[in-house]
Specification:
mainly alpha; elongated
Length: 114
């Protein structure tokens, strides 16, 4: 009887129970297995660059020789970690990890962001 009194609003938000928790995989920075979504891929790519390169550049202002060596190591580490994240991003849209070679093609690398 109470069901008849309730009018359904066709423009209202859905009220169905979808799940009791959010489910997502943790980001694995040092692995090539797993998946990573678009927003997390962008944020982690930017954060890895900042965390590794900015301190190396600050050290370069204090000690140019040591700073250059640390900056080279930071760039290599950033490159390797971005490759690992890109492989996980490829897995997210059901492609093989070799799909990351598109990163080296101009404008094709935007595929991973959009």
């Amino acid at each position: 009887m109470a069901q008849q009194n309730v009018m359904k609003n066709p423009y209202g938000a859905p009220r169905a129970m979808v799940g009791d928790r959010e489910e997502f995989q943790p980001v694995k920075l040092f692995a090539v297995s797993g998946r990573i979504g678009r927003a997390r891929y962008i944020v982690y790519s930017i954060l890895v660059s900042f965390v590794l390169v900015v301190p190396a550049m600050a050290l370069m202002a204090l000690s140019p020789g040591l700073g250059m060596a640390l900056l080279a190591v930071a760039y290599i580490a950033t490159f390797v970690m971005s490759i690992m994240l890109t492989i996980q991003r490829s897995h997210d849209f059901n492609m093989t990890g070799w799909f990351l070679l598109l990163v080296f093609v101009p404008f094709a690398n935007l595929l991973f962001w959009f």
